[in-house]
Amino acid sequence: xxxxxxxxxxxxxxxxxxxxxxxxxxxxxxxxxxxxxxxxxxxxxxxxxxxxxxxxxxxxxxxxxxxxxxxxxxxxxxxxxxxxxxxxxxxxxxxxxxxxxxxxxxxxxxxxxxxxxxxxxxxxxxxxxxxxxxxxxxxxxxxxxxxxxxxxxxxxxxxxxxxxxxxxxxxxxxxxxxxxxxxxxxxxxxxxxxxxxxxxxxxxxxx
Length: 207
Ligand SMILES: CC(C)(COP(=O)(O)OP(=O)(O)OC[C@H]1O[C@@H](n2cnc3c(N)ncnc32)[C@H](O)[C@@H]1OP(=O)(O)O)[C@@H](O)C(=O)NCCC(=O)NCCS
Prior knowledge:
With 207 residues, the chain is α+β, with helices and mostly antiparallel strands. It has a single domain, classed as Gcn5-related N-acetyltransferase (GNAT) (Aminopeptidase). Helices cover 30% and strands 27% of the residues. The chain contains five helices and seven strands. A seven-stranded mixed β-sheet has the order 2-1-3-4-5-7-6, with helices on both faces. Strand 3 and strand 4 form a beta hairpin. The structure holds coenzyme A. The site of coenzyme A has 18 residues, from strand 4, helix 3 and helix 4.
């Protein structure tokens, strides 16, 4: 994620979590981009402006050009012409040797096409690079879609925070991958990645 992606990420955030949480301000994202503990990754497409809000979902994934993290500014400098268009993001915080997934969202009309899964794969790959031992997150009890994505990648329900969300006092479910860096999980992760590539193609590039 680059500074110039902030407004698009904020739009996706607003669309996905409208009314659900205090939405981050520009300076919040700006501060996170400067923090050594936070990482944001975005999924982007080229020529994405062709996709209107109400258009039909498009076919499988060759249109997704890049997933990248904000540290890689140089390779993206050339892409400031407006051709890159952010359609999803994932954010994480590194706390000691734990990686906290703080948010993931895909623009509504690009959902169900493997983007969210690819973002999660990228975060898990980042966790591996950072040598963390545990992945963890909170998710609304009612958010079965996100829970299904996390469960697919080995997150298990380990607890609950009662009335955690201030808007409707909904409970948060805590989902965690323990022993993240041990062989059984890593083997399973590689299998999931292979299955993903088979289903969606390998045109998604993590830079
Ligand atoms: C959760 C979210 C990021 C998933 O993104 P996506 O790009 O639509 O998901 P994908 O197409 O990559 O699907 C990956 C997995 O997610 C789950 N999933 C996605 N959409 C689903 C749906 N409509 N019903 C059930 N499961 C679903 C499935 O496990 C799916 O794996 P499968 O294809 O093997 O069934 C997206 O729905 C979103 O932005 N939701 C709003 C924001 C949000 O709730 N974030 C989570 C906060 S904790």
